[in-house]
Description:
The complex is a heterodimer. By secondary structure, chain A is mainly α. Chain A has 13 helices and three strands, in the order H-H-H-E-E-E-H-H-H-H-H-H-H-H-H-H. In chain B, strand 18 and strand 19 form a beta hairpin. Chain B folds into two domains: 57-222, Penicillin-binding protein 2a (Domain 2), CATH 3.90.1310; 309-573, Beta-lactamase. Chain B is elongated and about 135 Å long. The chains are: A mainly alpha, B alpha+beta. The interface between A and B is large, with 51 and 41 residues.
Amino acid sequence: MAKRKEEKFFDYSLLFIVLFLTCFGLVMIYSVSSYEGSMRYGDAAYYLKSQLFATILGLALMIVVANIPYHFWQKFATLAFIVSHIMILLVLTPIGIERNNARRWIDVFGISLQPAEVAKLGMILFLASLICQMGPKKIRTTRGFLTVLLMPVPICIMVWQITTNLSSAIIIFGIALLMLFVASPDYKRFIIIGSAGAALVAIIIFTIINISTSENMGFRSERVLAWLDPEAFAMDTGFQTLQALYAIGSGGILGKGIGQSMQKLGFLPEAQNDMIFSIICEELGLFGAIAIILMFLLLIWRLMVVANNANDLFGGLLVVGIMGHIAIQVILNIAVVTNTIPNTGISLPFISYGGSSAMFLLIEIGLVLSVARGIKLKDV
Amino acid sequence: MPERETARNKTHNRHKIVIVFFLCTIVFLLLAGRLGYLMIISSEHYTERAKSLHERERSIKAARGRIIDAKGTVIADNKTVCTISVIHNQITDPEGVIAALSRELGLSEDFVRRRVEKYTSIERIRSNVDKTIGDRIRDLGLDGVKVDDDYKRYYPYGSLASKVLGFTGGDNQGIIGLEVKYEEYLMGIPGTILTVTDAKGVEISTQGEERIEPVSGSDLHLSLDINIQSYATQLAMQVMENKEAEGVSIIVMNPSNGEIIAMVDAPEFDLNAPFSLPLEYQEADLTSEETQNVLNGIWRNSCINDTYEPGSAFKIMTAAAGLSGGVLSLSDTFSCPGYIMVEDRRMRCHKPGGHGGQDFTEATKNSCNPAFVTVGLRLGVDNFYHYFEKFGLLKKTGIDLPGEANTIMHKKENMKAVELATVSFGQSFQVTPIQMAVTVASLVNGGNRITPHFAVKSVGQEGEEIFMYPYTEDIISDEVGGILREILEETVADGTGRNAYVEGWHVAGKTATSQTLPRGSGKYIASFVAFAPAYDPQILALVIINNPQGVYYGGQVAAPVVKHLFENILPYALEKP
Lengths: 380, 577
């Protein structure tokens, strides 16, 4: 081989977008959480510091991962799959941590970690590897199709039941479905699954509305009712949604200016977590909100470019999984905040407060960068 | 590397990735649309709701309108007091606040502690606190303690015209009397202080505060003259004491337009302490309902809330009806043997031997029952009832005070000769004192039925409103009115009313002595209605003495009160004729 040094590609625009979103997230976390931080911990920067720590750790890991050829991880795929299951089970052991009445975290050497975040990455890695092993012929068969479809089911059920985190379960399953969709040349099956899913959702909502008069309702049914009419549930289930709507609506076109949100002053619960987008709307207005949406769209476009130009199917599928992960979370988060779908806890990637999420997202970006490095410039 | 080749991205993979991207783009666009809807179209709605969530309101009381008498004297005023409240979340030193407030306000520590520790946005500790105490608390500079200036009703004349003016409650709302009748004029519009707070109610100082200034209530100008009211009250108290009477009512009014100049209903009560019980009840352990009943009794204005048998004073109406109905002329003669038979009833005259032969003027001066029974019987039930109604006796007078009582009268179909006879000299039916005064006034003022009233006008920030009252013209002819004025002046000049004679003022009037029900209880009501000058009535007075001990005749007991009243107020109120 004529060892002419090949021009290697590095996706600076992707890195720039991610860094922008991360820094923007830190600014917003400080703006949103300073009130609660000083009220609860006497330190306005309490949440910022904690997030900054996770972000720096995440960036370091991202650089490391970006410099490791991604094929290195393929041999750990099955291990990651198994470890994900075990970590979720660990929530039930004494190292599990309970916060806000939800047992979703485990304590790893003093750092709290959300196994569901590990499971997302684990699932992406495992499915990418699995699909590559099956080869393009097997994936066409019903058996191959069902294998990929059913693999994530146990972990989804565990995330849903053990950590009472339906939204993460939905995201994991959504990622799997998306990867399968890209891997399989088929359309018909996906249209059937899509229609069946839509029908199921419609039936569930219809049933809940009809039984709404009876008294024994789970909190999820009530959330659906609160979604349809948040003002009727203003005092309990619909409270957070309504407060988010107040924040968004009062932002108007130009917003109140950064730091000027009223709703973050204790009115909107968990403002720095899942509801941060509503405060962005309040402070930066419709322009700011759409700018952020455009940034995410740009990020997904970059991921699409990398996925399409990846050297092999494994790399492409990894990026597709990560793209699905980010896209699903952004969409669901904004949909929840704007009361487009019933309220469920989903954080906004790179922006919401949450160490595990930030760290694992940055690791995922590291993977994408690693895949991007494999692209030969002539391919682009 | 063949293996690597098989794992290459296929075309369909790339297609699908692009499809995924475009699906994402579509969903993002939909969400952006949803955001646009929320932030442009619904923005106003949510901004409004959010604002009301962030703002805390503190109301600023409006100063209540003053009440001013005919001569411009303020008889109901406001003084500044303070309202002390605490804001739970702003208190930094709860123990200090509890100690200071319980000390300064003289409240139990427990009481203050409960309020300080209660988790509410703002909790009122005490209102109507003296301004000096309020200022002292303000000077302590305690965090979370609010001292707001406030107004409290103050009556400079204490008990004068208490039952007319009425008083106000804790929120400065009118409770009885003119204070409640003219509430909408007097109360004004409270203002508000809007402050922006966080979810815990802590004010955000950088946001400033928004004030909506209160609008003071309008001043109410009355026809009541506090000097005349004051003198009438003195007289009433005097005669009540001398005659050991249960109560004395005096109404002084202008008969031509219905303006009431004084209204006394002794015993009065202290308007600055309307809820304090009289001595005899203070020791008694009363339930709240019993206490309320006692207080209602104390606040009751007999001039309008109670009815009585008018007695002989009603003969003025009988005469007016007889003259108007053409069944009576001054030259008619009546003979009184001391009684008159009506069907099988023997009705006695107050003079046992009878008045003998007399013309109608003499019969009036004598207040002769048989003569007036004769007039009543000549009219007949239909005619009599017609005039009773025409004079306005069946309806309320429409006075501008709450709780006016209705006339208690026989139904027309139940009225037979005996009832007609008794009604003719003022028995067997009941009217309120104000009804009596107003009806006499309407008969002698030229025949216009007037509406009695206190309020003349209201003067507020938005200008002046002069109150208009309805009246009915020509309930009797001028001629009949002239005859009434003449015979009533003679009654005072040298008839049963001579004790009310005031040199040089042409006083006219009629005595009355009636029994209270049940008959035979030995309780009497002595009364006298008088007006002056007789040829052009400008002042009319009605004095009612309830259950005087000893001599109880109206001419003996009530007429002298009118005499004293007129002697003093006529030179003050009218020009010397």
